[in-house]
Structures are given as structure tokens and as C-alpha cells.
Amino acid sequence: MLTRAGFGITLVLLALLMAACDSGADVSSSNGGGYSSASGAVVTPGTEQGDVQVNTVAPDFTLPDVSGKSVNLLAVARTHKLTVVNFWASWCPPCRAEMPDLAVAYNKYKGMGLAILGVNRQEDATQVSQYAKDGGFSWPLLLTTNDNVMISYRGGSLPNTYFVDSKGIIIHVVRGAMNDHELADTLAQYGFN
Amino acid sequence: MATRLTGADKREERRRRVASGDMAAPADSGYGIQGRAIPIEEKPHKTPPAPVAPTSQERVSSFGEALWRFFCSVRLAMTLIALIVIATLIGTLLIQMPPELQGDPASRTMWVKGLAPRFGDFTGIMYDLSLFNLFTSWWFKLLLLVLTLNIVVCTLNRFPKMWKQSTQTRMDVGPNFFTHGEYTATIALPVAPAAAEQQLAGVLKRRHLSVRLRQPIAAGKDQAATGAYAVYADRFRYMPLGTYLNHVGIVLIFIGAIWGTLLGNSIKIVDFAVPEGGDRAVGYDTNLMVHSNGFTEVDYPDGRPADYYSDIVLYENGKQVAQQRIRVNEPLEYKGILFHQAFFGNAADIKVTDDASGALVYQSSVSLAYRSQMYGPNNPMGSFSLANGAIQVDVVEPAGPGDPSLRPGQVGLAMYRVTDDHQLWRETLSQNQSVRQGGLTFTFLRERQFSGLQVVRDHGVTVIFIAVACILTGLALVFYFPSRRLWARVESDAGGAIIHLKGQAPRRADLAREMMRIAEHLKAGGATIHAESPAIIEQRELFAEMGG
After folding, report:
1. Which one, of B485, B527, B511, lies nearest residue B183 by Cα?
2. pLDDT tens, position by position, A173-193
3. What's the confidence (pLDDT) of residue B169?
4. DSSP summary character for residue A33
5. CA-based angle A190:A191:A192, to the nearest 5?
6. What is the model's pLDDT at position B497?
7. Which candidate from B78, B257, B369 shows the least CB-CB separation from A6?
8. Each residue of A66-112: pLDDT tens digit?
9. Is the predicted pLDDT of residue B517 greater than 90, yes or no?
């Protein structure tokens, strides 16, 4: 029969055994594809916390695209049925994962009044234009040198996507990457199907 | 020549005889109640007879006894436990090989090779010692098996004695039994012994003790006992056997731990990555396939993760059998197999066509669920096989901002011959770009996300649950329901009766308090306390200090 001390040690041993049972999960997988946060979204430091409410006016901005041409949100929104404002960066894996789906939607619906504005987070024009060229992403990709626009949208992570109607009102927000089903369902709600 | 044993010789002789089972060890030495120790006769040794060769049956019996004694050893148990604790610590601290790689020599070699930068020249030795698959190594299982045998044999060895203690307690004891002990009391009552015995039995019952013996002591049996009564009562007498539930529980845990190995049908896939819109077979002869309808992650505005889940569909032999939105703690369960949401990441859609025929050789999303330093700074990596597994193609994506090896949006492809792990070529592709190699065209179509699942089937878990229930129940029985035994002898004394009480119980049973209360009950019926053992007096003083 085990002594009392032996029994105690056995319990410790059992606890260790149980802890060890799950150790495989930590070591065998990379926990995803190199994201900066535990979620798919990439947390951007220094941005204000909070939320932009649906059914409020989209904070306006004017930013240069990769060719240097200024693009104003409200000007684009007024001339389109739906404008998708997508905050992204090329080093953000979930941002990259949703880009081809945005491209499919853009190519399909741009003639029906869909606009996309991609607000890039502080990357240089060469890098962004190269990425757009490689991927065949033809919507305006806007450059930033600070997080002012992101802060005005109170977005603390990437990717974040805001759907703005022709009156400049935010009608839908998606925080995190969208898959093709999600994007298609959202666009269908606003007549793109 | 006759020799006389010294004290040390006698102790050694006694120890030897106890160990060999010639005599019972006195569990309650001095009282002569339970163990009934047999005094050793100090007879001089006779001249030993001439040695006779043991028969084959004796040899077998002797070997069996030696084996039995070996597995009875507490020292063996302590050594095994120490070794298992050390091994478990090593296995917990050291990176362990994913279970699904262990059956695939090529993947295993590749995985071990990836450890070389970390462990250098020791990698091979550590691998040979099974330190990277410690919990499935033969020597770790052997340790568990021997410890299991150890516990089983120890338990069986001790059980008859414990059972006897619980069921065959000697109830009628002589007058000398009451003269010493930790819990004793002498109480006088101004009534005849028969009435005093009646009163005592009533008190014992009120104190929830089972009175098992109430009988007059025959004069012939005990000359001093004319008109005397013997009383015995106990409570929780079977509870010490709870310790066997602990032992059973511990053995069951070990059995549960190796259950999968014994049955060979356990599944544990910790990196089951399914790309959005893609399929992946579970394998393990289950004929199951998982399809991901999509992965979703929802964040709080500040970027903290709020939720993430996958919508999966399960097919068995091509027929849909289940569909569910799974989360980390909301798995899909089908035929005992659990599909948990575990992680997620990016996948790369790759297409391979044959240049000569134009036939599609491969088209799928490659989940980049691993990390590798082979192509750059810790890049996400996945792989797929061609030519019936003879060729492996690694796919890597950039490690993050500033990765010099790959631009965002690019993937690196590297083809290997599996037999010798020889790299055949390596290329970098942007989205929608192709490369022709060895008569095949490789195209990188796009990136997408994958759902990382954990797929688990472990019947051992049920055994573990039962084991834990056994251990908890056993602990509760032993610690919260300690057995208490009480003997009484009621004698006539100067026109009244005198009750000699004696109790036995583990310290945690607080028997001093119980006996104090019994005495108080009797006192309320007119009794006078003549004497109490120090333990009961201390309890009485403590009770008085607390204002009881």
C-alpha cells in the first residue's frame, strides 16, 4: 500500500499527466498564420477604443491613392449605391485572405453602383501598388501616414470593413475578416445579387 | 550447535517472517485485538538439515513469491512514481511530436530536422530516447504498466487483512483491554449492571453508533465477570476500505491513459486544418470528411477577439451526417468523435496541371498551419503531396512585415523528394502567377482562411472520469467518514454499576469528543465519571474554554 506521501506524489503525477495530455496542441500547430493578436484581426497600437455606430454618419476623409490622386469618401459615396470602406495592410494575413473575395465582388458589381475604398495602414505606395498589381486589385487603395482616419472610425484592429450608403451613413460594420459567404450575404441585403 | 538469538537477530527474524507471511503483523500492537500477534518463541536454532535441491514446483512457488514480494514493494512504487514524475516533467517542458506525424516516417524525419537549430547535436540522441514522443514511448508505457501492477499487487496483498479488520473485529474482550489506550473512561452508575447496560446501549444508539454486541459475560469464561455485560458498537466500519477505491481509481487512470493504445482506435488530431469552402478526410478508417462552409472571427472594436467559429458539415461515405457551427467549447460530436474549433490562419489555393496532357494534377487549399524557419523568419507553412506521396511540396507565406524572403501576397514553393528529403526546386509566386517545373505547372491562385480543428476520440476519457469519481469517493469515505469502534464492559460495583469504556479511531474521527458526549449523556442519567484518559480530559477542557 502506498504511504500517504506516496499518495500525494501520485496525485501530483496525475495532475502533470493530465496537463501533459494537451501539450501537443501547443507544439504542433502554429496557432494560425502569424497573426498579431489571438484573433484573426491584427491589433493596431495606439488607436482609440470604442465603436462607430451603425446608422451614424461615416467620418469623412480625403486620402491619396497609390498614384497620388486624392479621393474623398463622401464624394465617392454620393455617387455610388454602396461604398465599402476596408481598412487593411498587406502584412495582415486575414486582410490578404479577404482581398480576393472583395475583388470578385468589385468586378461583379462595380457597374451596379458598388465602390470599394481600401484604406491601407501606413505602407509605402510602391509596396501597396506592387501588392495590388500582383493580386489584380483594381479599386482605389488609399495611403495613410498616421492612424487619424482609423481613429476617427475607432477601429483598433485590421481588417475592419464599413458599408456606407449613398447618403454617407454607415449601414453595416464587419470587424475581422469576411469570407465569401459573409460578403455575398451582406451585399445581397443591399441589392447586389 | 545450538545458538541463542540476539535482540537484533530476533528483530530480523521477526521482520523476515512478517514479510514472508508466516505471521500476521500486529496492526494494533499491545492490545492484542486485531493483529493477534503471535509471540516468537526464543528457542535455540537447531542444526540446519543438509540442503535438499528444491523440486520444480517449489522453484516455481519461490519465484512466484519473489515476484509477488517485488511488486509489493513500497520502495518500488516510490521509485516508479519518481521516474514517472521526472518523465512527465520532461514531456511537459519539451516540445512533443504531433501524434499524426508519428505514423509517417517522412513527416517525422522532417519534423525532427526542424528541431536541429534548437537542440543541435543532441537532437538525434533525444529522438532515439523517445523524448519527443515521450508519452507514447514504450518505456513510459512500461513504467505505467509496472506501477499499475505494483499498485494492484500491493492492494491485493493488503486487502484480506483490511477486510478482516472491518468485518471480524473482536467484540468480547477481557478486563485488561480497558486498562490502557488513548480513549478510555470509567463511569459509575447508581443502578444494576443490567440497567446500566440498557442505558449505555441507548446512549450509543442516540450517538448514531451501531450496537453490535450486548451480552452477559459468562462466569465460567471470565471469573471476575459474574453479572457483567459486554457491549460493542461502531460507526462507519467499512469506510477504511475507501482507500481501495483510491487505488482502483489510480489504476483506472493509468488504464485510461493507455486505453487508446490497447484498443488502437483513439484519434487525436490537434492540427486538423480545413480551408474555407474546402474538404478534409478525417482518416483513421472513419470514412468521415469535414467540409468548412466558412470561418468567422468577430472582434471588439479595440481588436480583442470576441468570438470565432466555423460552420462545418460532416459527411460519412459521401452522405451528410451532421452540420453545426462549432466553437472552442461547442464541438460537433459524431459517433464519439469530437470536432472542436481550435485555431485558424491563412491557406493558399494551389493548382497543379500536367504540361503534356493539360490534366489537373492537384487543386486545393493548403492550410499554412505550421511554422518553419527553413525558408525565412518563422514563416507559416503547409505542404501537399504528389506522385502518390513520393513528392512533397512545401508552401510558405511571409512571416510578417519586413520579411526579406517573401513580399506580402507571395508564397514560396519548394519541392522535395520524400525518400531522401532532397530539395528539387524552390520558387516564389505572386497571386495568379505560375511556374513550370518537371513537366508540371504550379499556380498560386489566392489566399483564404482556414479553420483549425481538434479532432478527438478517446474512450479512455470515460475511464478517466470513472477513475476520478473513484478517487474522490474514496478520499471522501476515508477522510470524512472515519471508522469509530467502542467497547464497553459493565460490571457490578458497590450497589451500582461501573462502565469501562474504550474507543479506537483515527485522530481525524475526533473520538475524544464523541466519548466526552457519551459520558455527558450518561452523566445526565445520574452517572459519575471516575476516570478519563488524557485525550478526553483535554477535549473536555477545550470544550469548557470555548464555553460549551
Report:
1. B511
2. 988 888 888 899 999 999 998
3. 79
4. S
5. 100
6. 92
7. B78
8. 999 999 999 999 999 999 999 999 999 999 999 999 999 999 999 99
9. yes
CA B88 to chain centre: 13
Subunit contact A10:B299, Cβ cutoff 8 A: no
Q: Position of cell 486498562?
A: B179
Contacts of A9 in chain B (CB under 8 A): 78, 81-82, 85
Place of cell 498614384: A67
B209 close to A (CB below 8 A): no
Distance CA B235, CA B211 (A): 9
Show the domains of chain A with their CATH numbers.
42-189 (3.40.30.10)
Q: Cβ of B266 under 8 Å from any chain A Cβ?
A: no
Q: B86: buried, middle or exposed (CB in 10 Å: 19+, 13-18, 0-12)?
A: exposed
**Quick one: which of B505, B514, B504 has its CA closest to B478?**
B505
Q: How far apart are CA A30 and CA A28, in angstroms?
A: 7
Nearest to B473 by CA among B295, B153, B238, B142: B238
Contacts of B385 (CB under 8 A, 6+ apart): B391, B392, B393, B418
Q: Which helix (H) or strand (E) holds A164?
A: strand A160-165
ipTM > 0.85?
no
Mean pLDDT over A34-53 rounds to 44
Distance from CA of B303 to the nearest CA of A (A): 4
Cα separation, B343 vs B272, whole angstroms: 9
Cell of A82: 454602396
Where do the domains of chain B lie? Answer: 1-42, 74-163, 171-237+483-545, 242-262+460-478, 267-457
pLDDT tens-digit series, residues B344-374: 889 999 999 999 999 999 998 898 988 888 7
Class for the domain spanning B171-237+483-545: alpha beta
Grade residue A115 by pLDDT with cuts at 50, 70 and 90.
Answer: very high
The shortest CB-CB distance from A179 to any of B270, B294, B302 is to: B294
Between strands A114-120 and A82-88, the pairing is parallel
When pLDDT is averaged across residues B28-36 and rounded to a whole number, the result is 34
B327 contacts chain A (CB < 8 A):
no
- What's the confidence (pLDDT) of residue B33? 35
For A4-29, the pLDDT digits (tens) are 555 555 556 555 555 444 433 332 33
Cβ within 8 Å of residue B510, ≥6 positions away: none
